[in-house]
Prior knowledge:
The complex is a heterodimer of chains A (304) and B (272). Chain A has 304 residues and is mostly helical.
Amino acid sequence: MAYFLQQLINGVTLGAIYGLIAIGYTMVYGIIGMINFAHGEIYMIGAFISLIAFLVLGAMGVTYVPLALLLVLILAMGFTALWGWAVERLAYRPLRGSFRLAPLITAIGMSILLGNLVQILQGARVKTLPPTVPGGLILMEAEGFAVRLSFLQIFIVALTIALMIGFTWLIKNTSLGRAQRACEQDMTMAALIGVNVDRTISATFVIGAALAAVAGLMVTLYYGVIDFYIGFLAGIKAFTAAVLGGIGSLPGAMLGGLLIGLIEAFWSGYFTTEYKDVAAFSILVLVLIFRPTGLLGRPEVEKV
Amino acid sequence: MSAPLLAVDHLTMRFGGLIAIGDLSFEAQPREITAIIGPNGAGKTTVFNCLTGFYRPSSGMLSLTHKNGQRFLLERLDGHLITRTARVARTFQNIRLFSNMTVLENLMVAQHAALMKASLFTLGGLFGLPGYRKAERNALELARHWLDKVGLTAKADEAANALPYGDQRRLEIVRAMCTGPELLCLDEPAAGLNPKESADLNQLLLSIKREEEIGILLIEHDMSVVMGISDHVVVLDYGRKIAEGPPSHVRADKAVIRAYLGEAEDAEEDAC
C-alpha cells in the first residue's frame, strides 16, 4: 500500500510534466494540423534556460528560493517563448500552404537543428543543478517503507494545476482564445472577420513554448541533471500523451500526460525501470490501432 | 455626387483559358442594395472572391471609398486587412459559422481585432486593464444589439450549430455586421429559406441599409428578394455584364430574359 502510494505520487508528478509539454503538441495540431516535432527541443531549451538563469541568479546573490524560483520561471517562460515564436516564424510560416508533408519534415529538421545547436553551445556533457527545493513530508510509514512527498513535488503539481486552470480560462474567455478556436475551425472565415490568423498561430506557438519551458524548469529541479538530448524522449512521450488523450483536445492532453506519467511510474515500480519507455510507446501503438481519436478526441471531421 | 462606395473597374479574372469574369465594370453606392444576378456559372461568386482577396484579379481595379473619404484598392490588400481596414464583410453560400462556439462567441470573435488592440495583445486583458474592460463591454453591447435585432438573445449561449437553419443564416449576417463593415457582401443569403424567413431577411437587410448607412452587395437567385429590396441590379452572363439598372428596368431587359429563359423568338416584355 505504501509503495503503491509512493508510485502514485511519483507518477502524478511525472504526469504533470508530460501534460504541460503535451499541451503544446495538441494546441499546434488543433490550429494548423501539424505535429511540431521540434516541441521536445523547445522543452529542452526551456530546461537549459532555467539552469542558466539559476546559475546567473545564484552568482548575483539571489538566494531566497521562492524569489529565485519566480524569477527563473518568468525568465524561462519568456525566453523559451521567444524561441518558440522564432521557430514558427522562420521555419513553419514560410511553408504554410505548401504540401502537407513540408511542415512535418521541417519540424524534424528544426528538432535536429535545435538539439545540435544546444550541443555546440553548451557541450554534450550533462549539466547538474544542486537540489534547490529540499525537504518534504513523510505521509506514512509502513513495513519500514516511508512514503515521501517532497515540497518540490507539491510545487510541481500545484503549479501545473494553476497553469492549466489559467490556460483553460484563457482559451475559453479571452479574445485570443476565441480567435484560436475560430482559427481551429475555419481559418479562412476567421481571416474574413478580421482575425489576424498568422498572429494567432504565433501566439499558439508562444503559449505552447512557455508551458514547455515550465516543464523544463520542473525537470531541471526534479532530476537535477539535464543534457541536450532530453528533448527527444520527453517530446515523444508528451506526443504519446497528446495522442492518448485525443490530439487536438486540451483536457485530453492533460489527462493523457497524467496517464503516461502514472503508467511509467507504476511500470518502473512494479516491473522494471529498464523497459519503462517500452510501456509508454506500447500505449502509443495500442491507441493508434484501437482508438485513433484518443480518449477525449473527437472523430476527425473533414474540413471543407 | 460623391465617390461610389465600391467601383469595380474593368475587372477580368482568367483561370487558364477560361474567362470567369470579362471586363466587368459597375458601381455600388452607400445606403443602397446592389444585387448581382445571373444564371449559374455567370461569375457572381468569383466577383466576391476577387473583392475579398481570395483571388487576385487578372486585371482591373477594385476601389472602395469609405464615408470619410478614405480610399482602398482591394486587389492589393491581404485577406484579413480587407475586413479590418477596408471594412468589407462577407458571407458564403454555405453557412460557415464557428459551429462549436456559442452564438454570442461567434459575434465576439468578429470583434477580435478591436479587442486585441485594446488588450495589448492579451497581456493587458489578463490583468484586467480598464481600457480592455471598456472595449469588452462595448463589444458585448454591440453583440447584444445585433442578437436583439434578429431575435436570438434568448439563444445567446447555445452552440451555433444547434440553431435552426434560418437562424444560422441570420446569425451569419449579424456576425458580418459585428466587424463594422462599410460594404456587406452576401452570397445567396436567402438560399434554403422558407417564404416567411425570406421576408424576415428582407426586413433585416432593409433595416441594415437604413440604420447603418452601409452598402450591401447581394448575390441572389430568389427573385422576390432581388426585386423586392434592391436599388440597383447588375446582371452577369458568362462573366460579362449584360444589363444594369433599377429592378424594374432589368426585369424588362431583352438580354436578361434571353439569358434566363434561353433564346426566344419574341420574348414577352413582362417575363421575369
